[in-house]
TrEMBL record:
Gene field: Fgd2_0
InterPro entries: DBL_dom_sf (IPR035899), DH_dom (IPR000219), FYVE_RhoGEF_PH (IPR051092), PH-like_dom_sf (IPR011993), PH_domain (IPR001849), SOS1_NGEF_PH (IPR055251)
Protein name as it appears in the record: FGD2 protein
Species of provenance: Oceanites oceanicus
Residue ranges constituting the DH domain according to the UniProt record: 5-193
GO BP terms, alphabetized: cytoskeleton organization; filopodium assembly
Length: 304
């Protein structure tokens, strides 16, 4: 007799989980443990750096090796009398939230490997030495580190497929559908973590361009748009190049610095979005002009 489709997918889940636990073992028990040992001896990099690179990989490894994989193995051995995995995956799903921390840290971790490999040749040599081992299969540390980032989407795909192939009367239908919903929420949670990290990184870059003025640096701000603009001077009928940053709560009216050491712009005026009005003007001499009036001041500006 041919194996039912849903069992084939459940077995694929088990096989990929075994391979994944091996990869986690390599990251935690080999790379992290050995690099940490060298760091403690003061031979390569500060211990803090190694901790930052590997984030919470130890917790992820312990969870999969000691809980999820054994549960899955047990379930597949009993498949003939209990053909279901939905309930096991429901137990797994809440713990997958700990991936948020690892995923948020991933770009920073890869950057730290690059920076410290240049700064510390012994550190680079140690990594290269581990990478030469058979267990690494000719792949770099960075490549292995990507695996946890890709694991949740993989669960989602396998489970979707599993639910699709389940016969309508399967005893696992309700549990499997609920498990899929939970995995979907966790995937959304980790995507949100990535999006939030990118938002904060971009915001920080903008703050650096503005010279890190204390009253402007706020992690909850959201940059909506930025770009060059012409300021119209009604006194002498001329325009001058300025630059605008529009945030969710304020409009920053800036002047590009001539000597770009440190900050790129100088903030000349800050207009609160609260109570701000924007009105288009019909000026034949200066097309595309508009007025921005706020509590602080009114500006006559011309777009390109």
């Amino acid at each position: 007799m041919q194996e039912p489709e849903e069992k084939k997918i459940a077995l694929e889940l088990l096989e990929t989980e075994q391979a994944y636990v091996n990869r986690l073992h390599l990251l935690d028990q080999i790379f992290y443990t050995e690099l940490m040992k060298e760091a403690k001896n003061g031979k390569t990099v500060p211990e803090e750096v190694v901790k930052m690179i590997f984030s919470n990989i130890s917790s992820i490894y312990q969870f999969h090796a000691n809980f999820f994989l054994p549960e899955l193995q047990k379930r597949m051995e009993d498949w003939s009398c209990n053909p279901r995995i939905g309930d096991v995956i429901q137990k797994l799903a809440p713990f997958l939230k700990m991936y948020g921390e690892y995923i948020k840290n991933f770009d920073k971790a890869v950057e730290l490997i690059t920076v410290w490999s240049e700064k510390s040749p012994p550190f680079q040599e140690r990594i290269a030495d581990i990478q030469k081992r058979k267990v690494c299969a000719n792949l770099t540390l960075q490549h292995h580190m990507l695996e946890p980032v890709q694991r949740i989407p993989r669960y989602e795909l396998l489970l979707k497929d599993y639910v699709r192939k389940l016969p309508p009367e399967s005893p696992d239908r309700d549990d499997a559908e609920k498990a899929l919903e939970m995995i979907f929420m966790v995937a959304k949670h980790s995507n949100a973590a990535i999006a939030e990290m990118e938002r904060l990184q971009n915001l920080w870059v903008v703050y650096q361009r503005l010279g890190l003025e204390d009253d402007i640096v706020d992690p909850s701000n959201e940059l909506i748009k930025e770009g060059p603009i012409q300021k119209i001077s009604t006194r002498n009928n001329s325009t001058s190049e300025k630059y605008l940053f529009l945030f969710n709560n304020m409009l920053l009216y800036c002047v590009p610095k001539v000597i770009q050491v440190g900050a790129e712009f100088q903030v000349h005026l800050r207009v609160d979005v609260d109570g701000m009005k924007v009105r288009e003007l019909n000026d034949t001499q200066f097309p595309h002009t508009f007025l921005v009036s706020g509590k602080q001041r009114t500006l006559e500006l011309q777009a390109r």
